[in-house]
Amino acid sequence: MGTTHEQFNVGGMSCSFCAESIKKAYSRTDGVEDVDVSLAHEEVLVQYDDDRLSEVEVKDTLRDLGYTIRDPDKAKRYEQQQAELADGKRRLLIAGGASIVVAALMGWMILVMGRFESASPAMDLVAFGLALGTMFGPGRYIKQKAFQSLRRGIFNQHVLLEAGAFAGLLGGLLGLFVFPSFPTVHFFAVSVFITTYHILSEYTSLIVRTRASQAVQNLLDLQPDTARRVSDDGDVEEVPLDDLDVGDYVRVKPGENIPVDGEVVEGKSTVDESVATGESIPEEKAKGDGVIGGSVNETGTLLIKVTATGEDAFLNQVAREIEEARAMKPGIIQLADRVLKYFVPGVLTIAALSFLFWVVAPLAWGAAPNVQRGAFAALAVLVLGYPCALGMATPLALIRGGGKAADRGILMRSGDAFQIFPDVDHIVLDKTGTITDGEPAVSEVVAFGADEVDVLTTAASAEAFSEHPLADAILEAADEQGFEYGDPDAFDSVTGKGVRVTVASDDVLVGKPGWLSDEGIDLSKGDADIERLQGRGLTVAGVVRGGDLIGLIGIGDEVKSDAAATVQRMTEVGITPVMITGDNERTANAVAEEVSIDRVMADVLPDEKREEIGRLQDEGYRVAMVGDGINDAPALTQADIGIAIGAGTDIAIESADIVLMGDRLGGVMDAYEIGKESYRKTRQNLATAFAFNGIGVAAATTGLVHPVFAMLAMVLSVSAVLANSFAGQLLSGEGVNTKFALEERTDGERGDSQVTAD
Q: Membrane topology for this entry (predicted)?
């Protein structure tokens, strides 16, 4: 017994003010030691003393606040999110219908009957029924959140909304039974409208989140959760990974992910370990070599002895790093929430003071207390104090920016991405698969006493039967240039070194310079070029025919075509680019020089990447991280903004705030520009909303503001926010259709797929 950590995926969070409310509720719960809330990932991590608090009580705190705890299973969680979207749509349809009816009643009274006051008891009762039905029907969940927040002394947007809604209801009841001059229908209408506006605001936020999850769901294929366990008798059985123990044997076929950390006991293969090391060139594996869970077995079948399971396994260590990084990630409060922190208690205070003023002040000049005017003033302040446009300002800007980003193949997963990106001053880029293509390719051919075509065709003929990824690079280069080459007459592969073949009666060797030297080949004429190519970070293969070195082939991970231009765009706007990689320093510096990055961090392990991000943050910088692999996931989570390359691994995508569909690096700066513009729109929307509310609240304190004018102010403020958010788009046609096609993904982990999201 002692300290326990519980992590929940939570439904019902629509803005970071919800996150702050959850934090405050847990901070006031006896036994809770620490809590972290991630709005972007909809997660709550609670650290508590299990001697004083049970898991059920921890969960009940969330449920009491009106939030749901989703199933830990991803497929079921996705279904729950779809159900939440359906519930939100149903609430909006019901509340929207009530708003239309009550608006028609108001219009009939004003335009046809020419009056603001109560027209008939029947109309009053209809409006009363609509107000009750909306508030306690589709709006009931808001009351639960408001009550539980208020009970804990938390003043948030739900408390403010319910203050306005109940003020409208109370004003209508006063008109029915106490003050005949009160505009009964209009007060009841206020309750309906502000509840509907809030439901609409939350629904728009839910749509954004659900659409993002749908797109991510289409990108992600869950890792296989079984392995082929081989018994002592040689029998093969499919078992869950959780059933494996240290010392068990598993068989992994070509093209499959290695499910566990282990040691090769039988077979030879090349293994892509870039998920852990960042190295794009696969490693040769044979008996006695270690392998890492999550790596890709490429060429041969391996029998592996399990050496680590559970918390000791590499993937679980990364998962723990991600959880810790998420818990330590700097907290972010949306601009609207910072204002609401003071706005909510301010409105409630002004309403109370307005009532007291009109009850007490008349005594100073010898008049009787004006209870009716005081009540009207207090109610009007509460009605006008609920900023409907404020509730729409951030979601509308997010939808606008999200649609624009989607048209460019960018998935913005959270509102935080819009707010923080404009303040980012350092962008840390992983090398393999981010700055580079992530696949080996022929970069240079050097010929000695022959031409480059002869060198490449000889090497291609020698490698025609090889399954090594470097051989694939040579064959692909020959094919792309249209060179013709034949098959070898004899073929012998020397694991991890090269091939020995016969081509057109000539003995040919293609392989590492060290191996060629061991075979007695004189490499002296190629020494300078070997050193030069290796200095560029390339893997060098020598081509020997008839005992004579005829050429060298430099193979490396090619820099993406738009990498240098993207780095230049960063520096032009004052952002410092930093390259971080698990590759060796020589390779890292060569790539950095090619794209004009001055600061390089090489030979960095996954947990060290996260630490480097943390150091930059400790120095006061806002940091974005761009990566694509499992080894990048902790750093993506730690960064203020995590950006995943959509052609990368599942866990990197899940850890990110922004996903770039496909592998185009230029999307990073596109996302920056869209985020900057969207945040500017958000600030404009909030300024507009608060201008209406500020003027409205000040006027309402006089007790002379009619509810119909309050409703007009609400309509005008929302209309102004809508116009500011979408007018430019509608005129240009940009981003109106948010249907986007995700680029074809060809990585070996998930296979080819084409995804279209609406």
A: Multi-pass membrane protein
